[in-house]
Structures are given as structure tokens and as C-alpha cells.
Predict the 3D structure of the following.
Amino acid sequence: MTPSPAVLDGIDAVFRDRVASGTAPSSVWGVFDRTGLVASGGHGDRGDGRAPDADTVYRIASCTKSVTAATLLTLVADGLVDLDAPITDAVPAFAAVELPSSDAPVPTLRMLLTMSGGLPTDDPWADRQESMGDDDLDAVLRAGLLFDSVPGTRFAYSNTGYALLGRAVARAAGTSFPQAATDRVLRPLGLTDTVFSAAEAHGHVVTGQRDDDGVWTPQPMTGPGAFSAIGGLFSTVRDLSRWARHLASASSAVPEAGPLSPADRRTMQQAMRVVPPSVVPGSARATAYGFGLFVEQDARSGEIVSHSGGYPGFSAHMRWSTELGLGVVAFENATQAKVSVAADRAFDALLAEALAERPAGSTATGAGSQPAIGVQRTLDATRAARTSVSALLRAWASDEVDDREAADLGAAVCTPNVPLDRPWSSRRRALLQAVHAVGADLGAEPVEEHSGVPSQLWWWLPGSAGRLRVEIRLAPLAAGRVQTLVVTAEPAER
């Protein structure tokens, strides 16, 4: 599913225009699919008179959180961490924090992973705490924290929560958080250009900038510390695309091998905590938070996974479709540049083209070229049921079949609730009326076909005066029996 040159040219223009309009001194982007990075481009001056490319190093800020979550899950897999343990087990100083109510639980690692630890959103403050030492963080905890909600009850994006997770990782791994993340996740995947300090970087490191009334002011680089788990990584378009592709592959029929199992990677990309609309104003999709990743539900393509990153001087975004394995990463070096806006536009263009090219009958559940993992048997059963229902409808329309035989044929395809919900004879009369109303050809191939989930399918048959819509939904029985059968006439507009 390679993007067309026209779409890629349009994407490049989006980022070129941002530099031209003064949004950031430099802007770089990449598009990837299941085979790897398929296209990239860069504009502006990365600081040495050259435009950035796929190997130019930027800070990726909160895109780091997915690596933090993955590192923690490797420790869970090794039996060294319990996600439902209170954070006080790993960070004893948290015991000094006064909880918001007498019956409030101490936040667990799982609550902190899903941004439901009850702590307030803290981007402006936390983004400048990376170099804080562990002793300093302990002093912050002993001085007390505020809560916006009882832990475990609501979503609130908390960097402090992820700093605490970094401490939990370090304690369980017996080393620093940066070293644990590097050893357990980054190096096993060959992400050698993804590092926790500018000194470790192999390529050109871009300097972050702040717009001071039309003048770009360089921002200082912070070093690793107690808050590195919230956003301390530097990376490249090539490396971050590789990371995103690896995560997306967990939902494919052939997941990539890696330090984290496909099952755990799929867990990271599941909706765990609903994100209120006020957090994502203007979003057309329902949004939730998983483990270090945002998860959006798209009616056409299933889950869309993403995360943004914002640090003083930098903006980053990564976004992909778990079903298609198609995605975008983008970086800019300006405070509050919000490169996510451009990345969203780029991704929507990719998605629109990919969906337009899908074969008839392809769905968000994997009925296309690469079925979603774990549902092939259901997809096969649904396709077989469509064939059986098509034969049933043709038989019902035949004058040679009486009502008793029609009922027997229906019972062989459908579950017993179907005639109880509406008698066979009534269903047959309604079918004949619908066929007559639109002049439907019950022997024709469908003119269109869709599905919302693997066990559901609806299709249209052509008619001389409109078309006939047929919908089926299977019961959860291995035999693949139809529990819902709806036939509707859709007359053509006159």
C-alpha cells in the first residue's frame, strides 16, 4: 500500500509551508508502512545551513513515554514488576504524599501508565524538570502533591506520573532508567540513533528554538535525570518510524519479533482510559489512553495510535493505523510548534488514499489484504454465511418453495431466535415486497459491501429501480449461524 507521488508531494508541501510561514526554523517528516520508511522530506535550516533529513537528530519529548511503557512491560514479563502494586513499593518517598481522600488508593503502576493516577496535568512545569535528581524528586514528594481526582477514577495527562514510573523501572532493573530503556528496548531493536543525551547522538543534533517576537532564541539542552522517562529521548525520523512500525506490526498477521511480546505491544495500543473531549478539542474520533500511547477509534480503519511530544524548543508527533501499518512521524525545532497539526493532515491524506484503494469488502476488521490478527476464522465464517444467506434469499423468492420448506431452509442457516424475532413467513413476504420495490436481482454479485466487526457484514444487490440492502450478524457460535438477518429496499431517487 505504497502512497502515490501526488499524496507524498502534498505532504511535503504541508511541512514546507510551515517553515515558509515561520512556524519553525526546520521541519522534517517521514512516512512508513509495514516494509519500513517509504518516504521522507525536510525543510528549513537545521543549524548548519542544510535541510534536515531522515537521519537528523531531534528531541522527541513525550514520544518517549511509549518507550517507558515498553521498558516497564519487559520487567513485568520477567516477573520483576507487578503493575497493580502501589507506587510506594518502588518509590518509598511517595508514602509522605497526602492522598485526596481518606479512602483514596495509593496510585498503582497501572494507574500511572494510563494517566489515571489522579495527579494534575503538568506540562509547563514538568517539561523543565528533566535533569532533577532522584533525591530532589523525593524532596518534592515529601513536600506533598496536589490531586485533581481520586487515583484510578479519571484521565489526566501527568508527566510526574511517568517520572515515578521511571523510578520503578530503575529500581526493578537495578540500573538507571536511561540504561534500562536502552538495554531492554532500544538496542535490541537496533535503534542506535535513539539516545538520552546529545553527546550520544551519531548524527547532527538540532538545537531547539523559541520565537521571541520574531527572533529565534536557542534553548539549552537538558541532561538525563529523574524526569527522563517523561520525554528525554533524542531520535531521528528513521529510528522513530522503525519504533512505530514495530508497535504497529503487533496487530498484523505476522508480528515482528522483539524484546516485548506482540501481545504486550497490542496491550499498549488498547483503549484503557477514556480521554475527555476537552483534552482533544476538535477531534472527530473517540480517544483513549493506553500504555504510553493515545488510541483513537476510526470507523473506517479501526484503531489509530499516536503520541505527541513537546519540549522547550521542540515538537514531535508519531501516528499510525494498527490495521494498515501505515503512519507518519514529524519533528520541528520550535517551542509550541504543534507539528501534530501537520502530521494529522499528512496522515489523513495517506489514510484517505489507502481506504480508497482497498478492494470491495475490505473493512476495519481486516477483511482486506491483511486480516487483523486472531479473527480469520470469524471472517471466513461470515463470508460463508453470506453465501448461505444469498442462496436462502433466492430460494425464498422461488415459486417452487412453499412456506414450510422456506422455514426449514431458514432454520439451517439461522439461529432459533430469528423466527422468534419475526416469523419465517413474515420475513419471506417482506423479502418479496422489497425485491419487487427495487427490481432487485438476487443472483447478482454485490455492488458494495461493508463490515464493522468480523462477525458482521452488509451488502447491496443491484435493482432496476434502486438496490437491496442485506445485513447479517453471526452469533458467537463456532458453527457460524446467523443471529440477525435484515433485508431492506432502497429505492432510487426520482
